[in-house]
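Q: Convert this sequence to C-alpha cells.
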Amino acid sequence: MHTQKSATQRGVTLIELLVTIAVLGTLLGVGVPLFTDFVRNNQMDAVTTRLIGTLNFARSEASNRATVITLARKSINNNDWSQGWEVYTDDDATGNTARVGGDTLLRDVDMDSGDITVLSNAPGEPWISYRDNGMLLEDGNGVLIAICDERGEADGREVTVGLTGRVTLTTPANNCAP
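A:
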C-alpha cells in the first residue's frame, strides 16, 4: 500500500522542536542574568539621581532663600539614609538640627530602595546642612555617601559633597560602608 502526502499537511518534526528548545534555553540562560543586572543598575541610578537632585535642590534653596537648609535622614539607624530624607529650612543658624515648628518642610523623599543601601560617613549625624551661601555647614569635612547593593563596591556609587557644597559622583564606589 502506498500513501500520498497531502499538500496541506503542516507541523514540525521532533528534531526541529528540540533544536528550537535548545536555542531558546541558551538565549534565556544568557539573557536573564543580563536583564537582572540591567534592572539593578537602573535601580541604583534612580536612587543616585534622586539623592544628587535633592542635594542640589537643598544647596540652591539655601542660596535663593539666604537661609540654612537641612537634609535629615528618616532612618533611626546610624548613618543610614536608605529610608529617605526630608529637606527643610532650619531656623537654627548653626544648622544640623531636627525639624521643629518654625522650620518649613520643602521636600519629603521616601525611598523604597529594596536591597540598595545608602550610607554616609558621618555616624550619628542625621543631617546635612547648607549655609545661606550654598556652602556645606559641616565641621571641616565633606560628606561621603555610598550607594550599593549586594554586588558590592564594583557596582556601587559614591556621592561626595565637598565643603563648597558641590556634589560629585564616583563609580565604582571605593567603599560601601564609608
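DSSP finds one helix and eight strands in the chain.
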